[in-house]
Amino acid sequence: MKQKKVVIIGGGLGGIAAALRLAATGWQVTVCEQGARLGGKMNVWECDGFRFDTGPSLITMPLVFEELFKVAGSALAEHIELAPMRPLSDYVFADGTRFTYTSSLPEWLATLRELEPRDVDGFLRFMRLGARLYALSKETFLRRRPVDAPDMKSLRALRHLPLRYGWGNYHRTVAAHFKNPSLRQLFDRYPTYVGSSPYASPATLAVIPYIEYAFGGWHIKGGLYRLVESLVALSRAMNVEILTDTRVERIEHDGKRVSGVRLADGTRLEADALVMNGDAATTGAMLGQQKISQTSSGKISQTYSARSLSGFVMLVGVGRKLPQLSHHTIYFSRDYPREFSQLFNERRFPDDPTIYVSAPSRTDDSLAPSNGETLFIMANAPANDETWTERQIEQARERVFERLSKSGFPEIESDIIVSDVWTPQRIARDYLMPGGAIYGTHSHGWRRAFLRPPNKDANIGGLYYVGGSTHPGGGTPTVLLSAKITCELIERYENGKG
Ligand SMILES: Cc1cc2nc3c(=O)[nH]c(=O)nc-3n(C[C@H](O)[C@H](O)[C@H](O)COP(=O)(O)OP(=O)(O)OC[C@H]3O[C@@H](n4cnc5c(N)ncnc54)[C@H](O)[C@@H]3O)c2cc1C
Fold first, then answer.
1. Atom 1 of ligand 1 has which residue's CA nearest to it?
2. Is residue 471 in contact with ligand 1, taking CB distance under 6 Å?
3. What range does the domain containing 238 cover?
4. Structure pTM?
5. How many angstroms separate the alpha carbon of residue 356 from the centre of ligand 1?
6. Which of 42, 54, 241 maximizes ligand 1 atoms within 8 Å of its Cβ, making it the mutation to test the pocket?
7. Mean pLDDT score across all residues of the chain
8. Taking Cα atoms as reference points, which of 342, 103, 311, 65 lies closest to residue 192?
9. 68 in a domain, yes or no?
10. How far is the CA of 263 from the centre of ligand 1 (A)?
11. 197 part of a folded domain
12. How many domains does the chain divide into?
């Protein structure tokens, strides 16, 4: 029988995972990536002995990664070394409070007792809520295809969900579980893992802190990009054709079914099926539609008001050791509601941003010269296409360093050896993400959080979607789950299996 051809538009994590899965089920796979390297937002920058991950700095749910290697007939441990993050992170607050968050329960409960004894119970209840949401979403959301009707098991799980919190507002749910203001701010941060505000997200996102606590946070030795390098090597070994610097400009179709793609240089690639790994919101233009594709969950809004957060990122190589830093530290702003109001309502970079600093060379000395540190410094920024002027970049930089300096971060400016800056516009340009939104649409309101663009186009046969802008959403493990769901749909609809 003739081998069926699939073209994958984009070589991000979702695209590579789909390529591996489809190659494993007998498809002839071509990946077209417009960038110079595969990985998409999970990417790398190397300079003068410093190696930076430009995107993710922490992964969770390692079992999902292990599963992908297994599908490719291999084992994760043969390719990469996962290192558990113990502790998970240090937290520094504007009032001078600081403590360490760890997945060692006895140590963490001792910290909680010191901060606010009543919050010990609140934390355990909050984790229980997350665990119930996880059990439910595993059946209905994370692993199931959105076109499937829920089964009796899922409905039974739904009946046991504490609805008062499960369907309420995220921040109010955090406030109902924690009395201590620092703990409230800590747990309010989790919706930013999917580019959203705690004040507008549904409480169902309480599944995120649970997943991190239960499955742990993990680093990959040599940097997270080692994962992409291993998956690309596996793909090549499975005869996946990988084309870099290759932008797909058009999806060819007759209104009912896809037939191939047209590349920016005019080349036509024929295909029996297509998988879109770029942002789902850009598909309409590629289909030749004025608006984006009408999918079964309705139109995906193209307005930036519906987009998830973008980021202002500084990659900094420092020429001295910083033993006072942990692998991960969060330096919180003084006024969290104001920060999110500036991000989502005023749509501007906050006056006093919360700063996330990852210093992976603190635990992995392969990432920096022996007398240096590799720092990834990130603040949330609104998604838009506005060009940041030099003055705006400098202003954002000043605000970042002002917050860090007020929070007791060491003075590093005179020891910076290499540095690079990412603005929302650069994220938008380099990965073709409208507005530089890292996670597609935001998760405000439970409909948006749970009814994301589906993995199969509702109108055009043979067109599928994978990655953070589609179901089930952004973040590395979720993107891998998305690849699994998409490939199951392809097996069902293209090969009549499943
Ligand atoms: C600064 C930052 C920090 C992050 N931190 C974390 C973290 O700590 N933990 C975590 O789990 N996640 C994190 N993420 C999110 C994570 O990186 C993403 O959710 C995930 O990598 C997205 O993968 P994807 O396959 O959906 O899309 P992408 O990585 O965006 O890949 C899509 C690819 O498609 C290509 N493409 C688009 N259109 C076309 C076209 N027309 N033709 C050809 N190619 C095209 C793009 O160039 C891109 O390479 C972070 C992201 C960023 C940017």
1. 55
2. no
3. 5-42+60-80+222-304+441-494
4. 0.93
5. 19
6. 42
7. 91
8. 311
9. yes
10. 21
11. yes
12. 2
